[in-house]
Amino acid sequence: MKTEILIGMAALLLIMQPSxxxxxxxxxxxxxxxxxxxxxxxxxxxxxINGTLVxxxxxxxxxxxxxxxxxxxxxxxxVDGYYYEDYDDESSYYYSSAAPTFGxxxxxKDMNYVAxxxxxxxxxxxxxxxxxxxxARPYVKMNYSIMVSNAVEKESNDGLSEANDxxxxxxxxxxxxxxxxxxxxxxxxxxLDEGKSGLLIISASEDxxxxxxxxxxxxNDSERRFVPDGSDYDYLSAFINPGLYYLRxxxxxxxxxxxxxxxxxxxxSAITCDDKEPNDNFTSAVYMGALNASDKSAxxxxxxCISVKNDIDYYNFTVPQNMSVSIDVDSTYSVDTCLYNSKKxxxxxxxxxxxxxxxxxxxxxxxxxSYGRRGFSYELSVEGELSEDGKI
Length: 392
What we know:
Layout: H1 2-15, H2 18-25, E1 35-40, E2 46-53, E3 59-65, E4 69-76, E5 101-108, E6 113-117, E7 120-125, E8 128-137, E9 142-149, E10 164-168, E11 173-179, E12 185-192, E13 198-206, E14 212-220, E15 225-233, E16 235-240, E17 243-251, E18 260-269, E19 286-290, E20 297-306, E21 312-319, E22 323-331, E23 335-340, E24 346-350, E25 354-358, E26 361-369, E27 376-385
Parallel strand pairs: 1-3, 10-12, 19-21
Antiparallel strand pairs: 2-9, 3-8, 4-7, 4-9, 5-6, 5-8, 11-18, 12-17, 13-16, 13-18, 14-15, 14-17, 20-27, 21-26, 22-25, 22-27, 23-24, 23-26
């Protein structure tokens, strides 16, 4: 009976909230088999630890702070997602990319509580030894990834003139920040060197259910000042050219929020757009080529870019003889396509692909974002299939 009570108490402790876990860790609870994260100081740090949590176990980490240091720790899904071990009625294993609830708690060398979060913790620590504990619910076997970096915002950065300088965007950058106090606005600036261009992607992760509003600023020659050039929440993309840019981060919406942490992920991808702008009307349509009548099946492919809001890209192609033609778009975002004949009369429009039986002639295609997005690329393909006798 005593054994059953002890087992029950142990199970109860595993599912209690972090507040109880913080109290229970105080005192002489020195963890065993800790993972050493090394020394953290003024020098730039940016590394990732990958691991697996087994049901009923906790992962402990140890690190030393050499100098007064401000840095963040964030729990991220690994590249291959989270693994869940569960069984259905047929006792088969399945995989899910859905995120579990993590708990990350930081203690000092005497196991006194320092900070905690379900996702991101930003620390400003004095020299000494520290521990971090990771657990998760639901309690099933899963992968995890923890990033540690001292790329953290420096206040005050509440306006363009006070923006934190992120330097040149040449590789992926991470920056941790906080919306604190309520109504806080954070500004960052970065530049792109001459001869460079590409697709800028900025994504945000928060340790709350709130969303982070992101606004990009670029210089307007006619107004001689930096003006907003696109805004979204948690994810912002734009095609950029050499120059200086500013980014504003603030809480999205009108709801009052006292405090939360966030992580910005900033990257630049080199993308070649086949739709040389401007191709915004029938006259400037990009020619994709002629479907090969000698092949039973032939395909034409072009990479397009929605560079500005309400951008519409025009293409044209030739059908040499009666063919069954399908038009498809591969893209992160939904793209509407329309097919027109040589007289510029609409044949069909769809965001799920077009399939038509066409006679010989010249045809046009338009492609545009279904929901007014901009700053993304897509692959447009036109496939023609010829019957054995050349008839439809």
